[in-house]
Amino acid sequence: MKIILIAIGKTDDDYILEGINKYLQRLKHYIKFEIKIIPDLKKTKHLSQDEQKSKEAELFFKAINPTDEVIVLDERGIELSSTHFSDLLNRKMIGSVQNLVFLIGGPYGFDNSIYQRAHYKLSLSRMTFSHQMIRLFFVEQVYRAFTILKGEPYHHE
């Protein structure tokens, strides 16, 4: 299985990039992991929120394949403990999912077409974080999930 994180807009802060890269290096020992960045939309000043979400959805659909299993990271999604998240990843691997794709939307969330395409909505927290911070938190949680699955001493309960 390969995990792909697709996000709108680049990460500007060096400390976030450093953290993401730290966990990407660690993840190489467990699974194939890729981050795809969709460029921010240009000239959005005259677009409504719905128009912006629709244009972002078009870009997401270009980045995912019909056979990909898609999970949107959304504050209204289900919340899982780190242990339950590791169980979810394990079930996907056992179920022979080829590409497990996680999406981080733009500032207004996702277009309804993305929600309809998604298999799950997952929340990392009820709190709101910047889209850049979520990337770091997510990559760390994927790493944590694999250390849980391997019984390694990273996660403590």
TrEMBL record:
InterPro entries assigned: Alpha/beta_knot_MTases, RlmH-like, tRNA_m1G_MTases_N
Binding positions for S-adenosyl-L-methionine per the UniProt entry: 73, 105, 124-129
GO cellular component: cytoplasm
Nucleus in keyword set: no
Signal peptide span: none
Compartment(s) of residence: Cytoplasm
Coiled coil: none
Annotated CDD domains: RlmH-like
A Gene Ontology molecular function term of the record: rRNA (pseudouridine-N3-)-methyltransferase activity
Domain of life of the native organism: Bacteria
Known catalytic reactions: pseudouridine(1915) in 23S rRNA + S-adenosyl-L-methionine = N(3)-methylpseudouridine(1915) in 23S rRNA + S-adenosyl-L-homocysteine + H(+)
Keywords annotated in UniProt: Cytoplasm, Methyltransferase, rRNA processing, S-adenosyl-L-methionine, Transferase
EC number: 2.1.1.177
UniProt cross-references to Gene3D superfamilies, sorted A to Z: 3.40.1280.10
Assembly and interaction partners: Homodimer.
Similarity comment text for this entry: Belongs to the RNA methyltransferase RlmH family.
Role, per record: Specifically methylates the pseudouridine at position 1915 (m3Psi1915) in 23S rRNA.
The protein's name: Ribosomal RNA large subunit methyltransferase H
Gene designation per UniProt: rlmH
